[in-house]
Specification:
With 689 residues, the protein is an alpha/beta fold. The protein contains 24 helices and 30 strands. α3 packs across α5 and α20 packs across α21. The longest helix is centred in the first third of the chain and has 16 residues.
């Protein structure tokens, strides 16, 4: 059976969400509308799906490609979608009708049980109906007699059932159906609905009715439909915040957390790997690039906060028995794998277990052959989770360096430049070690600075040098504070006595294929869609906000204050950040907690304003918090209970500040990492109340 999904329309009643995407690409939870449908079809064993798109059809193909979770995708385009209706979209797919078909509109999402019941029905032709829920005026109503369809039209009276827009036809009747479409098209009736060619076959055509029963289904026509569906999906999809109910004590706060959840869920490995990677008969296809793994051995190695989750998804695509060996260093052991070993290493301070994991990777990938393939799973946090200090430098010495640089307020990219030049694997050296085998780097990118690479780039060429490393240490007055072995190593490198990291001219790099699977821009896009669906005017700061925590907070406060005088409706500001904190106090916290503490005085005069900041991996330095939230009332609240915000900031004791204000965001480990995410909401006119 082939399935046809009609997805050509824009969905004008969902504007402005659908200004630049078709309705079927609007996000519901962690997936788009059409992905929810494809998940149900895949679960039911469907192998062939035809998607008829129109509005921004290129975005549909870019998202789904030609293969999705076991479904082959054939893309057809209704070029003149604005001047016809869904019957003409069916006509566009006419050349694909070679067997029984099921077809439905892309704005219909249903429980997989409905699809299973439709597929398994003993009847050749079936219409799915809802005879449980109330009927509204604009619904496509049906009259059913003795379990068979007798009439179908919107103006039908005295009925208690409606069509949900999902049908099954056997091949012979599908051909008759298409003959009727051809007749209507030839008569110029291209604005007809998909039900019209069916009614032309009455009374000869026998179509049996299948009730949805108590199985869940949604049709998303307008903003109200979308919000109702999101509310239900929110109850179904686990939230990333453990204390959501406690923290979302106002509507604005709840919306801020919902927007952050959408961003994190939009960049989880389980939602991207099946779209970008397929395996069939020895051929591994990644982003359209084919690799024959039948001629040699396949290994999987890597490290980072999301690498365990990536490993789990890899084993869902590639049969584990085909993997010769695998080991990844990750922050957690939540993921379940059969062949790839997951080592729980430490972050942000590297540990001995991480070194053992890297040594195992290096041993596993020794003496490789040109026909062998090594997949490297790289994600944020890999710099600490994959430690491999060069000979002559101990792990304790590298820990001292890392701690000194973090507390000095050095930028993340500066810390990584120095660490690359103390490592056996960073700065492209892992890829060099793997030669002559082919390297495939699958990367979840958290490196936000243009000078940085995720996990210090173990499979990427490096433009930094020993000389730059020395300059950075001098800039932060650390050259005489760091262990003598590290100082001597850097100085030897400056003199040319130690080999540099991998540079872009090295020939072996032609044997390395790196692919960025996920990055912060994808999270910001998911957050934007969620904010639009909640009724906000949205501004996204496209470029990462860098700088000292206090400076960045003052900048954001200025932007919000200027915008406050202009807005006439609820407003959302969305961005990602990589700020630094100079640790001089004795308290505890993380950079997101420090940032929100700094923003509290900046927003105190902005009525109905909320600010949130989280680390997308769910851990803001301390495993007990992922970030913080604050609103314009918190400055006065802190004064009322005797809390000195500035004193907590100076003592770097922002965890205790937010704990006392009940503003800590306690998060689940998300198994992804694309940097820090922030949301600011303003509703000065109480439009959302």
């Amino acid at each position: 059976m082939k399935v046809i999904i009609l997805a050509a329309g824009q969905g004008k009643r969902l504007r402005p969400i659908t200004d630049n995407i078709p309705k079927s690409l609007v996000k519901l939870g962690d997936k788009t509308i059409i992905e929810h449908s494809l998940d149900s079809l895949s679960e039911c064993g469907i192998k062939d799906v035809i998607i008829v798109s129109g509005f921004y059809s290129d975005k549909m193909k870019a998202l789904l490609g030609d293969y999705y979770k076991g479904c082959r995708i054939k893309h057809c385009v209704n070029e003149d979608y604005a001047n016809n209706d869904n019957m003409f979209s069916m006509w566009v797919a006419k050349d694909e009708i070679t067997e029984d078909i099921m077809y439905f509109n892309a704005d219909v999402i249903c429980n997989s049980e409905i699809i299973k019941n439709l597929i398994n029905s003993s009847h050749k032709n079936v219409i799915v109906i809802d005879d449980i829920n109330p009927i509204e005026a604009d619904h496509m109503k049906v009259r059913i007699e003795e379990g068979k369809l007798k009439e179908i039209r919107r103006d039908l009276e005295d009925t208690n059932a409606r069509a949900i827009g999902m049908y099954k036809l056997c091949l012979d009747d599908a051909r008759k159906y298409y003959s009727n479409i051809e007749q209507l098209v030839s008569e110029g009736k291209i604005k007809s609905k998909i039900e019209i060619p069916m009614t032309m076959m009455f009374p000869e055509l026998e179509i049996h009715a299948l009730s949805t029963g108590n199985n869940t289904w949604f049709e998303i026509d307008d903003i109200n439909d979308l919000r109702r569906t999101q509310e239900i999906m929110h109850r179904i999809i686990p939230d990333i915040f453990n204390n959501y109910d406690e923290i979302s004590r106002t509507e604005l706060r709840g919306h801020a957390l919902d927007i952050l959840s959408a961003g994190v869920n939009g960049v989880k490995p389980k939602n991207i790997i099946p779209k970008k990677m397929t395996y069939n008969n020895g051929i591994l296809n990644i982003y359209g690039n084919e690799f024959d793994i039948s001629k040699g051995r396949l290994f999987v190695i890597g490290g980072g906060k999301a690498s365990g989750a990536l490993a789990e998804e890899i084993e869902k695509i590639i049969p584990p028995e085909l993997i010769a060996g695998g080991i990844v260093n990750s922050k957690t052991e939540d993921s379940i794998t059969k062949k790839i070993q997951i080592v729980r290493a430490t972050h942000p301070i590297p540990g001995e277990i991480g070194i053992m994991g890297v040594n195992s990777m290096l041993g596993l990938t020794m003496d490789l052959k040109p026909e062998d393939i090594v997949i490297c799973l790289i994600s944020g946090g890999g710099s600490s989770l994959m430690p491999s200090p060069v000979d002559g430098i101990t792990l304790d010495e590298k820990k001292i360096l890392t701690d000194l640089m973090i507390k000095s307020g050095a930028e993340t990219y500066e810390i990584n430049i120095v660490r690359k030049h103390l490592s056996k694997t960073k700065g492209g050296q892992l890829a060099r070690h793997i030669q002559p085998a082919k390297v495939i780097g699958l990367i979840i990118q958290d490196a936000l600075h243009p000078r940085d690479d995720t996990a210090s780039g173990p499979t990427c060429a490096d433009q930094s040098t020993f000389t730059e490393s020395l300059e950075i240490l001098r800039r932060y007055n650390l050259i005489n504070e760091i262990p003598i072995s590290i100082k001597e190593r850097i100085e030897q490198g400056v003199r040319g006595n130690v080999p540099e990291t991998v540079k872009s001219h090295e020939p072996f790099l032609s044997n390395v294929n790196n692919h960025v699977l996920l990055n912060y821009k994808m999270a910001l896009d998911a957050m934007k869609q969620k904010a639009l669906s909640l009724g906000y005017e949205v501004k996204v700061i496209e470029e990462t906000v860098f700088g000292k925590s206090r400076d960045a907070a003052q900048l954001m406060g200025k932007i919000l204050t200027e915008k406050y005088g202009e807005i006439t409706k609820p407003f959302a500001l969305i961005c990602n950040t990589e700020t630094t904190v100079s640790v001089k106090g004795s308290g505890k916290g993380g950079r997101n907690q420090q940032f929100i503490a700094n923003i509290i005085p900046e927003i105190r005069d902005l009525r109905n304003c909320v600010a949130t900041s989280i680390d997308s991996d769910g851990i803001d330095y301390l495993e007990s918090a992922g970030g913080a939230i604050a609103d314009n009332n918190d400055f006065k609240k802190s004064e009322d209970i005797g809390l000195n915000v500035e004193a907590h900031i100076k003592d770097n004791n922002t965890y205790e500040l937010h704990k006392k204000l009940n503003n800590l965001l306690i998060m689940k480990t998300t198994n992804t990492n694309v940097g820090d995410l922030q949301v600011y909401l303003i509703d000065k006119h109480n439009n959302l109340q």
